[in-house]
Protein 1
Amino acid sequence: MKKISLLFINGVDANVGRPVLTEACQDIDLLNLIATFRIIITIFWIGISVALVIWIMVDIMKVIASGEVDTKKMFSNMSQRILALVLVFLVPAIIHIVMSIAGAQGVRYLDCYQTATRSGINELARDLAEYELANFPDNPNYNNFQETLAAINRVPAGREQMRFKNELWGKACRGLDTDHPLRDSCTRLHREICDSDYFNC
């Protein structure tokens, strides 16, 4: 698949001012994997934080219930729990720092990590589909058609995806001869568009 970095000028998207993503970060499958990793990290972060807070509260209640206060031991235990809690809270910041340092070598890993959200991935999928359609050749072959259709299928199902498919049909399929190599693919695409709730054929 062609990459959308050609749309950018001096490291910034000329249309919307977004930073250029590295080539790897334009891979939707990779971004979905990173998004899953982010969810796991978030669950870990919240779960450990809550567990540590509960642990601290339990320690305090044990001391109160026992009626015996060992100040030195209580201070040591509390310090360890609070330090662990602070370190857990710093996990997102540590991830961002590591990504930023890695990006100093010319690879924008932090932008990649920040893009790996559901909205970010959907937005990138739309950008890729728009790019493929904007650069669709006048005399497409089967591979051109399938690459562009694959990019469009990455866009969330709905009106916008069907709009892209309708545009592809107009560019690739209108007026084809009956023996054209794309005829069957275009017929299936046209049927899919007509069967949707968004276009009347």
Protein 2
Amino acid sequence: MTARSTGKTLLLWASFFLLLMTTDVLAQKPPDWILVGKGGCVVWNASPRPGDSASWTGVCVAGPVNGAGTLQWFQEGRPADRFEGEFRDGLMEGRGTYVWAGGDRYVGQFHTNLRNGQGAMSFVNGDRYDGDYRDGRQEGRGIYVWSDGRRYVGEFKDDKLVKGVLSLPNGDRYDGFFFDSRPQGQGQLIFADGAAYQGEWKQGRPNGEGTHRTSDGRIFTGTWTNGCFRQGTRWDAVAATPKECGFR
């Protein structure tokens, strides 16, 4: 292949990728109003997609929707998300129920089109959350129960655990701080058999100064690294296996 033909080939590929990027940008629409009734009423569509449409069962007067009713979204003519509740100036406001096309369901308070205040969320995978929301995210006090039996009671921020009690199906319980929804900072892990570790955590494991009291009365106090403790010939492991610690 000559240098000239190589240049033409690169130009063709560049044009192809530019076309793909342009098509993708054109497919994305900015937030806008969408007509939902014959009376000329509209609601705010925060994330428009090609093929979006909607219907409204409440009072329909030209302009933004106000009052109670049911808003049914459609995607390419097929039923998608649904909201039942109050609107103010074309935005979800007050108490309502929002059901996603995939089956997730929220019942609670809305403000300026987002989940704000007290609400309960049921996920199609069996998880449940009941508590505070802020700008569409779990934030404040709440209870989250996983389908596998885990249960957390405490504080949330940006949909993540911050400080509280996480109970496991086997009877173990962690009480303390979290970062990125994993134990981090000061915390205590109490085992179902009566053993307990109290001290510093990082990335879900004991890291730093801490004390582990076993169910048979042994005590391991000192510096822990990734759940592993060694002091002379004595060793221990918490939230890690002896093999992971290199003890066996």
Protein 3
Amino acid sequence: MCEGLLAFARNEYAACVEWLKRVRHIAHRCGGSLAQCDVIHLTLTEAALRARQARFACALVAERTARKPASRLNRLLKQRLGTQPPIGIAYCASEKIRQVLRVQDQKARVRPTPQHAKAGGYTR
């Protein structure tokens, strides 16, 4: 997985596709949230688009759309397959990362108070 992400960072999109294609179905084993696994899938999709592997990119987008048909991001990905989208996928992926970090930050702030710990009370 790391090799694939490094290949993407080096603008070696075809190599990125080959690396991430091998691990995309087992990426969840590395731990982390669904959103973090989603970043791997988005990186693979973007790499396929940039490597001009349209058939594979189309299959990836179809998988995503089947799981979440109402997703704005999936609509943008579909749009990207045909034309240049108004918002790039890299922007959307960075927004997804920001969302994950916000949620993790919020979870870190919510802690049980000593007097309510037994009762399950939480404060911010």
